[in-house]
């Protein structure tokens, strides 16, 4: 039943409240017929995300059935967590705030409002690292082995368009497109592909041999001549893709040139040498590596951060392949995996393998404090696991 003014005033007297101190309008709430629990979800947004929605852009919830849901804007990813509240939250369409009632003195004495729904919790968003490991995993299901590979003609299995990746990878569109560049993926017939490593090295080898035979400067490799000379050997878009992956594109006097990236080329050649050996004698490896890179390039162990690890404790010293992209994405699992490979790490050695775990404004030092314990060994600070590694 609707309350009358007299009933409202009787209630105020019972509550020992002075009507003169209150606003003249009273809002009487009643539950509407559809006010079911769990019908409504509340989402708490920071101002930036609010502005996205108000500007007509959308936010997307991503994740497959076995994954923890994340919410993505155009360029950021957020973890979604349920926050319980001790106060029940009521949804009241057209409910007037005290400010609105003050502004509108003419508003009638009693306002009857219906509660459309209620909730005891809301979704809280926390900015998180995009979960991008899956992107590489999906593309590695079917790496591109070149146009002559019979396998490629037959299958349309495991090929992904941008739309497919957006529905499968828990990251925003901009983060996904940026990561595709980082992992040197290229679009072939509308599908994103990663070149199979041996095929990639074959084309890179064609390019470096051409640079050598033409005596070009590594900082000025002409695109047109590369395509003309190597076109009969490989598709021109593959040659251009390799130049883009291993060089920086620029224009000079209307012609397109590439400045080759020495560190990246040396790194790829090291990977080729290391991937066929379990461990490699370090000094022998350094010699073979320097002989294998193009004329005019200098190899340095610094180029191998996050790709290979030197074992200084073995006699003679050895080096072996350890790729950061093969390690788990979850922080605790990453540390477990590193501590099972090596019991004690120096900060210099472990940094390339945990750098990508740092959240916004977080340092490697803060991660080590949380997941490892430090001790001194021969005057050097080393880190080991906080928990026993099985």
UniProtKB/TrEMBL annotation:
<comment type="similarity">
    <text>Belongs to the DCC1 family.</text>
</comment>
<dbReference type="GO" id="GO:0000785">
    <property type="term" value="C:chromatin"/>
</dbReference>
<protein>
    <recommendedName>
        <fullName>Sister chromatid cohesion protein DCC1</fullName>
    </recommendedName>
</protein>
<dbReference type="Pfam" id="PF09724">
    <property type="entry name" value="Dcc1"/>
</dbReference>
<dbReference type="GO" id="GO:0034088">
    <property type="term" value="P:maintenance of mitotic sister chromatid cohesion"/>
</dbReference>
<dbReference type="GO" id="GO:0000775">
    <property type="term" value="C:chromosome, centromeric region"/>
</dbReference>
<dbReference type="GO" id="GO:0031390">
    <property type="term" value="C:Ctf18 RFC-like complex"/>
</dbReference>
<keyword id="KW-0235">DNA replication</keyword>
<dbReference type="GO" id="GO:0006260">
    <property type="term" value="P:DNA replication"/>
</dbReference>
<dbReference type="InterPro" id="IPR019128">
    <property type="entry name" value="Dcc1"/>
</dbReference>
């Amino acid at each position: 039943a609707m309350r009358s003014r007299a009933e409202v005033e009787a209630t105020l007297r019972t509550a020992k409240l002075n009507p003169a101190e209150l606003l003249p309008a009273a809002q009487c709430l009643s539950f509407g017929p559809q006010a079911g629990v769990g019908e409504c979800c509340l989402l708490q947004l920071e101002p930036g995300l609010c502005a996205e929605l108000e500007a007509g852009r959308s936010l997307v919830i991503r994740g497959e059935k076995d994954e923890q849901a994340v919410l993505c804007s155009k360029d950021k990813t957020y973890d979604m967590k349920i926050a319980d509240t001790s106060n029940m939250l009521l949804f009241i369409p057209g409910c007037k705030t005290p400010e609105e009632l003050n502004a509108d003195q003419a508003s009638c004495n009693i306002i009857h409002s219906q509660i459309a729904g209620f909730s005891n919790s809301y979704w809280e968003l926390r900015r998180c690292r995009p979960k991008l490991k899956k992107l590489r995993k999906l593309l590695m299901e079917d790496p591109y082995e070149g146009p002559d590979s019979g396998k490629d003609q037959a299958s349309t299995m495991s090929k992904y368009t941008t739309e497919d990746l957006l529905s499968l990878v828990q990251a925003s569109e901009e983060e996904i497109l940026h990561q595709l560049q980082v992992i040197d993926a290229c679009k072939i017939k509308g599908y994103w592909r990663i070149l199979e490593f041996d095929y990639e090295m074959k084309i890179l080898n064609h390019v470096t041999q051409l640079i050598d035979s033409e005596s070009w400067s590594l900082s000025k490799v002409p695109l047109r001549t590369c395509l003309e000379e190597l076109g009969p050997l490989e598709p021109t878009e593959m040659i251009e893709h390799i130049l883009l992956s291993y060089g920086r594109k620029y224009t000079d006097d209307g012609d397109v040139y590439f400045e080759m990236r020495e560190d990246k080329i040396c790194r790829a050649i090291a990977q080729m040498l290391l991937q066929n050996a379990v461990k490699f004698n370090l000094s022998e490896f350094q010699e073979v590596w320097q002989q294998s890179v193009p004329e005019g390039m200098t190899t340095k162990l610094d180029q191998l951060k996050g790709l290979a690890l030197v074992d200084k404790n073995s006699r003679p010293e050895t080096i072996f392949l350890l790729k950061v992209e093969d390690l788990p994405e979850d922080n605790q699992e990453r540390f477990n995996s590193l501590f099972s490979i090596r019991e004690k790490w120096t900060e210099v050695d472990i940094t390339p393998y945990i750098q990508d775990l740092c959240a916004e404004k977080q340092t490697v030092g803060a991660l080590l404090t949380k997941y490892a314990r430090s001790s001194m060994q021969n005057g050097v600070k080393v880190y080991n696991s906080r928990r026993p590694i099985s």
